[in-house]
Write a structure and sequence with these properties.
This protein has 259 residues and is α+β, with helices and mostly antiparallel strands. Helices cover 54% and strands 13% of the residues. It folds into two domains: 173 residues, Transcription factor LuxR-like, autoinducer-binding domain (Beta-Lactamase, 2-Layer Sandwich); 68 residues, Winged helix-like DNA-binding domain superfamily/Winged helix DNA-binding domain (Arc Repressor Mutant, subunit A, Orthogonal Bundle). It is built from twelve helices and five strands. The chain has a five-stranded antiparallel sheet, with helices on both faces. Strand 4 and strand 5 form a beta hairpin.
Length: 259
């Protein structure tokens, strides 16, 4: 039986969510979401986050116990384009309580009926954004209709907290994965690229680093090959996003001081 979620849930919820600080895999986050949904008296959960890689590719991360057939249809038929709940999540910060009034056009109403047929009848969606602006959303659903509005309102605070914790954990895991896969640049390659970022020519860099101009060109060609680009400024942009240039100047300064 559904009961209004009060502040007595908060301590236990925070205890569950605090484990996300130590999550090392998506499975850890999934298990946490299962506990959260159970604690708040929901049958289903769905989390989706979209993150950008340094090469501007979208990394989409989804964790859900929604019916698999519904997830497959949703993806195959591109339902996200007409789903008002997901569209709300991309542009708004406020939680959204599901209701038939959200589905206005004939095609949206047909989508709503199909959605309900898979047991996703009542629920709340919590949009969330990372500090970098990466969007995400956590939805909690119930397979029963006519769920009291007061109950859905009562989970807003705890649900929003859960969404923030989950999105932060996935963002951290994605960042760790990118860090492990980032290209390896040598110290000299990073130094050359750093000075490119400062607007220096190959000849000017050769004078600064006290190496030949041919050597500078060689190092920069290697950098562009590793980063899969053909322009120096593209290499600078991608290297910066990977965090490969942060210590280039400090390393150079240290070496100069030791001579």
């Amino acid at each position: 039986m559904l009961t209004s979620v009060d502040y007595q849930h908060a301590p236990k919820l925070i205890t569950i969510l605090s484990h996300l600080h130590f999550a090392t895999s998506s499975e850890d986050v999934y298990n946490c979401l299962s506990h959260v949904a159970n604690l708040l008296d929901f049958d289903f959960f769905f989390y989706s986050g979209r993150f950008s890689s340094p090469q501007h590719k979208i990394i989409e991360h989804t964790l859900s116990n929604y019916p698999k057939k519904w997830q497959e249809r949703y993806k195959q038929l591109g339902y996200e384009k007409l789903d008002p709940i997901w569209q709300h999540s991309l542009s708004r910060l406020t939680p959204l309580i599901w209701g038939p009034e959200l589905f206005r056009s004939p095609i949206e109403r047909a989508f709503y009926e199909e959605r309900c047929g898979f047991g996703l009848q009542s629920g709340v969606t919590f949009p969330v954004f990372s500090p970098s602006g990466a969007p995400g959303a956590l939805s909690l659903g119930i397979s029963r209709s006519n769920v009291p509005h007061a109950f859905l309102l009562s989970v807003v605070q705890n649900g929003a907290a859960a969404a923030a914790y989950v999105h932060d954990a996935i963002h951290r895991l994605v960042a760790q994965g990118l860090a492990q896969s980032r290209p390896k640049l040598t110290k000299r390659e990073r130094e050359c690229l750093h000075w490119v970022a400062k607007g220096k020519t190959s000849w000017e860099i050769s004078r600064i680093l006290e190496i030949s101009e041919h050597g500078v060109i060689h190092h920069l060609r290697n950098v562009m090959q590793k980063l899969n680009v053909t322009k120096r400024y593209h290499a600078v942009q991608i290297a910066h996003e990977y965090g490969l240039l942060d210590d280039a100047l400090s390393s150079f300064a240290t070496d100069r001081a030791s001579k």
